Amino acid sequence: MTVAYPIAHAWLSTGGTGAQNYDEFADDAEITEIIAANPASALAVEMPHRAPGSVGRAFLDCLPDAVARLQAAKDDGHYVSAGDVVVLYRITAPDGARAYGLWCMVATDQISTSADEPGAVIRNEDVFIEKVRERVALAEATKHLLSPVLLLQTAQGEALHTALAQAVTDAGSPAVVDTDPAGRAHEIWAVGAGATRDRLLALAGGGELVVADGNHRSLAAQTAGYPRFLAVITTPESVAIQPYNRLVSELTAPLDALELEPLTGPAGVPATGGRVHLYTREGAWSAELPRVAEAGVVDNLDHALVERRLFAETLGLEPGDKRITYVGGDYPAEWLRGEVDAGRAELAVLVAPVTVDDFVAVNLARQKMPRKSTWFTPKARAGLVVAQLD
Questions:
Q1: Is residue 32 classed as helix, strand or coil in its secondary structure?
Q2: Mean pLDDT, residues 123-150 taken together
Q3: 353 and 242 in contact (C-beta within 8 Å)?
Q4: In whole angstroms, what is the distance from residue 177 CA to residue 17 CA?
Q5: Separation between Cα atoms, residue 171 and residue 192, nearest integer Å
Q6: 197 versus 330: which is more confidently predicted?
Q7: Which among 250, 295, 274 has a CA at the least distance from the CA of 351?
Q8: Is 79 exposed, middle or buried (0-12, 13-18, 19+ CB in 10 A)?
Q9: Backbone angles phi, psi at 331, to 5 degrees
Q10: Rounded-to-integer distance, Cα 233 and Cα 210, Å
Q11: From CA 101, how far away is CA 78, in angstroms rounded?
Q12: Model's pTM, two decimal places?
């Protein structure tokens, strides 16, 4: 049995449309700059309220612009149509490391969010409902899905990795090569009906799939009632977990309620869990956030402790407070310290990355990770493969 299916009506990029996913930015101004430099970018469709000339307008008010931009990209030849296909995906880093994935559709009714809910697709992280509503509204307006949910194949990962690497070797020249800001080359190949497509779908969609990126997008598909959602199914060998840090624009209370130890060097991402590093313009500290002996693995993860001990108990902030910015691993510690030094933030919180063992333990128990706690790399590029919802 497989829960993965071909894309009935796909649009494949011919170049110029690839972009970081909408939630990968720590600074909204970056999105505006990217759209200004490349109006065909998928960001112009996914984040229409950040486009030049629209900044300050409400997201919903800008949806007609998103529809028009997607149609214009098609009319200008930035996409070609393909029917009943899966799409091979290879990402090559500057050091030569390669990641593989398969673009396809996955059954929405297989999403499981708790131990007592059956399903082969495990969604493991709390979400911000406002973002989910925006994703639903965008899909309803455009009738397309531009960003995939990244799923980790846990049961047949090694076999899928081998099969995808061989299929890419056999496929010849890619349909497009898109290079991201980190210098990684993203390549795609469409695969139509036949033995190769069926074998890849069986491997990709057999066994449990863990949401590595795209918790909001998967919930949006459920909320909208779509029977299937766009996904890239990848392999454990293809990904790594990087830090997921935080910036706080306003300190609402002093930090001296915490047990702080001054750092002798610059604040960086801690090498191991158990302590977090804090940076303000007054200095840098290491802080141990007290754990609860009788609590489970989720409640004692560093990210959960930051939400509870630092934000809620010390600063009086909810996780969704607009004064908190979640900053993924593509932004180094130097960048976060620079935001504080420049006065655009008052506090940087640097958190050790979640370990693979902890991530697996949480998922096997079908529990939820804290919000924005796992930054998987490399991420799938939005706008390379678009699924039309007809």
A1: helix
A2: 93
A3: yes
A4: 11
A5: 12
A6: 197
A7: 274
A8: buried
A9: -105, 115
A10: 9
A11: 22
A12: 0.85
Task: List, for residues 144-199, the tens digit of each pLDDT value.
Answer: 999 999 999 988 999 999 999 999 999 999 999 999 988 999 999 999 999 999 99
The pair of structure tokens assigned to 216 is 């909001």
Rounded to an integer, what distance in angstroms lies between the CA atom of residue 191 and that of residue 189?
7
SS3 state of residue 389:
coil
Q: State the pLDDT at residue 363.
A: 77
Determine the CATH number of domain 4-241+376-388: 3.90.1530.10
Q: Which two tokens stand for residue 119?
A: 């399903």
Residue found under tokens 């830090």: 243
Predicted confidence (pLDDT) per residue in 19-54, tens digit: 988 777 778 888 999 999 999 999 999 999 999 999
Residue 366: its pLDDT value, please?
78
CB 343 within 8 A of CB 328: no
Q: Where in the chain is the domain with CATH 3.90.1530.10?
A: 4-241+376-388
Q: Please state, in angstroms and as integers, the Cα–Cα distance from residue 366 to each residue in 118, 123, 363, following that order.
A: 10, 8, 5
Q: Kindly tell me the sign of the dihedral angle through the C-alpha atoms of 24, 27, 31, 36.
A: negative
Rg (CA), the chain: 21
> With 0-12 CB in 10 A as exposed, 13-18 as middle and 19+ as buried, what is 56?
exposed
Whole-number Å distance between alpha carbons of 177 and 172: 13
Phi, psi of 210 (to 5 degrees): -105, 130
